[in-house]
Design goal:
mainly alpha; 116 residues
Length: 116
Amino acid sequence: MSLGMAESARSTSGPRGVAHQTNIEWRPWNEAISMVSLVADKDIAEAAHVLDEKMWRLHTKIKRGLTLENWFVLRSSVEAAQNDFIIAARRRLSPAGGPLQRFSGRPAPDDPIWTS
């Protein structure tokens, strides 16, 4: 959510490729990744690291002011990694629970809510 807010607040008039400050507080995220790395099994930790890398890449694009033509498409790689993390964690932590059909209640990118 913080990355989305940073993208929407980004100035479009500044030079591209120049680092811009964002107001995202990464400490809780980094602490959570460290804890997962410390206590989780290999599959969960690796899925968390893939998600972390996707977050780094997206944040770097936002900070550099690079053109983000379609936020839904760009965000989808982070969401896919998040979904993979959830699947890995549920497989290990809740094997009797079965797979989820959805990972959030957010409407689809083509839902009219986004254009109304």
